[in-house]
Amino acid sequence: MRRTKSIFFKYFYICSAVILTSFICLGAVLLLVSSQYFTGEKRDLLTTNLQKALTEARLVFQEGPEDITLEQRLENVSNVLKNYSAASNADFYITHDNGEIVATGEVLRTSIKRDKSIPLSVLSEIGDEVTYIQSDLDGFFEEQHHNVAQHFYDIGHTSLYIIVSSPVSQQDASVKNMLKLFIVSTVVVLIICVIVVYVATLRLTAPIKEMAQTAKKIGEGDFSSQLPEYEITEFQELGHAINDMATSIASYDKMRTSFVANVSHELRTPMTSIGGFVDGIMDGTIPQNQHKKYLGIVSLEIKRLTRLVKSMLNLAKIESGSTKPEFKMINVVEPIANSLFTFEDRINAKNLDIRGLDVDRTMIYADNDLVHQVMYNLIENAIKFVNDNGYIEFGFEKIGDITEVSITNSGDGLSEEELPLVFDRFYKTDQSRGLDATGVGLGLNIVKSIVKLHGGTIRVTSVEGEYTKFIIQFKNTEES
């Protein structure tokens, strides 16, 4: 079985990982920037002090009696370098062009391999302008140093080099101190962020848990469970959808219960009749001269069962989507006329007046066979309830890309309470039960399903004691 992960912990881990990664990246950038900043600052400081020390060293070379030796002047220069060395926290060196150190000013006294002079390879990189070098000067130092150097001449035109050096470890110490401060701050901020994310995640996932519990209750049959309003738009929309779903399921459950009850009743009644009459014929309860009469009743009940099963199958096909309409432009008057011919005997028996068919071709975009079934059911329903010597009137009206077809029959009409129920399955008015025992109560429900399949609408209006009118809307243009 596949292990599942809580959305709470998954969201919490993702947010925490993003925050931690952000701090790590920020720390790396800070380390790089601060290192470059300190390097630039150190280079500028050493350059400034080198230029000042070199200016004073040149004055020392120029001042004093002419008989002062170079060694004495270099000793005086060393005193100047010591002052600047202390001020800049760096070591100063002056060398001949052969690398020999002739004057120093040291306060750091970093590790120097004293048996070596400044390598000539280093001196070759130093020009008459200030040169910056970050290295150990080819082994002169035992660690990396910031070095600025410049070539110059004394008053005797002796070629000399001045070098100012400061260990990189000093800068590293400053960077480490800053990094420690950053890490401490990061840990504190990270703890606060984790707490905030934890609380926020709890609040964010709470509605999801509530929805899951409500959905579980709905799945167990408790359709009264409703979700509250949420502040977050997505949760609010999902909550509304679940509430609507619960309401719809409750409605369908009620409809299903009613459907099962109605089907059971509709099936049980004719089957009971059939069974009773057959048993009566077989056991002799019904005399032989009455057999034909009761077998006729059995035949009618069997036909009623056949119509019921056929109607239920048609309805199931339509609602399951297995019925695919073959749309084309058809003249809606033709299926109406064909249906009227089918009921010619019943129309004549009631002496009905058929109105409204003296019209031109009225085209709609629909399936011809399904439209025929719609008109057949509606006309059968109209004939059932029309009064003797009454009328059935048809109306056709084009409204833009919609064609409206109406079927009106005179008669007792429907009450306001009955109007919303006429399209329900197995619904029969009391009048219907008295007028027609052969109906199964599915005709108008099938009509509604077929019209819906066509993307149309159907509605009913009625005035008690006057008429009942069904109005259907079909498209009259081909879909592109």
Q: Tags for this entry?
A:
five-stranded mixed beta sheet, Heat Shock Protein 90, Beta-Lactamase, five-stranded antiparallel beta sheet, 480 residues, 11 helices, alpha+beta, Helix Hairpins
Structure description:
With 480 residues, the protein is of the alpha+beta class. It has three domains: 7-173, PAS domain (Beta-Lactamase, 2-Layer Sandwich), CATH 3.30.450; 233-320, Orthogonal Bundle (Helix Hairpins), CATH 1.10.287; 328-475, Heat Shock Protein 90 (2-Layer Sandwich). Helix content is 55%, strand content 16%. The chain has eleven helices and twelve strands. The protein has helices spanning 7-62, 70-88, 120-123, 168-219, 233-283, 291-320, 333-342, 344-350, 368-385, 430-435, 443-453, and strands at 91-96, 101-105, 131-135, 145-153, 159-167, 328-331, 353-355, 363-366, 391-399, 402-410, 457-463, 467-475. Helix 6 runs parallel beside helix 11. The two termini are 49 Å apart.
The total beta strand count reads: 12
Spatial strand arrangement across the major sheet: 2-1-5-4-3
Q: Quote the CATH topology of the largest domain.
A: Beta-Lactamase
Oligomer: single chain
Per CATH, the class of the largest domain reads Alpha Beta
Strand percentage, roughly? 15-25%
Helix content: 55-70%
Largest sheet: 5 strands, antiparallel
Describe the secondary structure blueprint for this structure.
Layout: H1 7-62, H2 70-88, E1 91-96, E2 101-105, H3 120-123, E3 131-135, E4 145-153, E5 159-167, H4 168-219, H5 233-283, H6 291-320, E6 328-331, H7 333-342, H8 344-350, E7 353-355, E8 363-366, H9 368-385, E9 391-399, E10 402-410, H10 430-435, H11 443-453, E11 457-463, E12 467-475
Helix pairs in contact: 1-2, 1-4, 4-5, 5-6, 6-11, 7-9, 9-11
